[in-house]
Every structure is written in structure tokens, then in C-alpha cells.
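Bumping my old thread because nobody answered last time. Still need a sequence for this structure:
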């Protein structure tokens, strides 16, 4: 079963996309508020804490920074050693990463945002997930914007799956997203 990791600040289109992924046989893994929304919509969701064996820590500051998550994203499918390491350590591969980052820029532009609130809008795990997936774009599809959801579903439905060109385009967008 393919596995998708969803952790989004911008929840636009989330439920529709998740339903379509579920209908295509994806296991949905998610964090905090995203997992809550998926569950409330009646979708089966595996909390990331179930994958890692650790609860979200420090008010959600530590959720996805774990080898069972990043190993699942970074394992190169064509490398026997990567697959063997994943098997040896109980790492389930992650095929699709859908992450958009905390709205730091918007919070920083608002003079009413208190300093402590602004600090909490600095995303650590999100950029790590996005960059890991983009680094392994040949095996993992990375999506950082709700505007791409429809095209991604179309690519998933293509005979042979997502094209190398679309994978690379999404990876480029992901790197630009984290760089910005």
C-alpha cells in the first residue's frame, strides 16, 4: 500500500485530496491538526506518533523529526542497501509528502504578532520533510501548494504513474518554497 504523509498549515482542499488519495489505496499518515481534520472527515488516518512510537513533544515542536519518518522518505527504491536498511529497522516507505509550512511571513508582517508567537511560526520539521522528499523526488512525490493537488492526482492516475518531468517540477517548487 502506498503511504502519504500530510502535514499542512494551509488546509485548503485537504479533505478532497485526502479522500482521493484514500480512494487510490494510500495510507494516510498525519500530524496534529491535519490528522484531526482527516479523522473528523471520516478518513482513516495514522497519527505520526503511531509511526514513530513517540508522542508529539514540546507543544508540537517535535513531531516528524524521526528516522522512521525521514528514513521512509529518503530511502532510494533502486538501492538495495537502502531497502535493506529500511527493512532491518522497520521503516515503512513514504511515497508522497504533502506539506506546507507555517505562515511565518504572514505572522511577521502583522505588527500585532507578539515575539513569542512569531518564534512559534518558525517551521523546523516541515522544511526538513519537504527537502527530504524533494531530494528523493525520483521515488517520492512532494507537494507544497494546494494549487497542485489536482495535477498531482492526475499524475497519480497516469499510466506508469507520475512522469519524471512532473516529479522534478514539484521538487523544484518544493526547494523554492523552503528557500523562500
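Sorry it took so long. Here it is:
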Amino acid at each position: 500500500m502506498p503511504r502519504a504523509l500530510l502535514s499542512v498549515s494551509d488546509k485548503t482542499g485537504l479533505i478532497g485530496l485526502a479522500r482521493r488519495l484514500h480512494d487510490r489505496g494510500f495510507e494516510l499518515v498525519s500530524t496534529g491538526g491535519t490528522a484531526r481534520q482527516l479523522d473528523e472527515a471520516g478518513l482513516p488516518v495514522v497519527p505520526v506518533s503511531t509511526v514513530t512510537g513517540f508522542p508529539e513533544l514540546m507543544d508540537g515542536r517535535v513531531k516528524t523529526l524521526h528516522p522512521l519518518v525521514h528514513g521512509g522518505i529518503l530511502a532510494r527504491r533502486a538501492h538495495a542497501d537502502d531497502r535493506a536498511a529500511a527493512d532491518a529497522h522497520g521503516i515503512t516507505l513514504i511515497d508522497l509528502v504533502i506539506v506546507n509550512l507555517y505562515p511565518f511571513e504572514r505572522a511577521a508582517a502583522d505588527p500585532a504578532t507578539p515575539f513569542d508567537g512569531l518564534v512559534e511560526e518558525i517551521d523546523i520539521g516541515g522544511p526538513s520533510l519537504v527537502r527530504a522528499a524533494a531530494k528523493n523526488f525520483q521515488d517520492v512525490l512532494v507537494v507544497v501548494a494546494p494549487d497542485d493537488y489536482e495535477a498531482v492526482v492526475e499524475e497519480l492516475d497516469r499510466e506508469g504513474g507520475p512522469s519524471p518531468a512532473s516529479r522534478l517540477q514539484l521538487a523544484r517548487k518544493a526547494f523554492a518554497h523552503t528557500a523562500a
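DSSP finds ten helices and five strands in the chain. Let me know if any region looks off to you.
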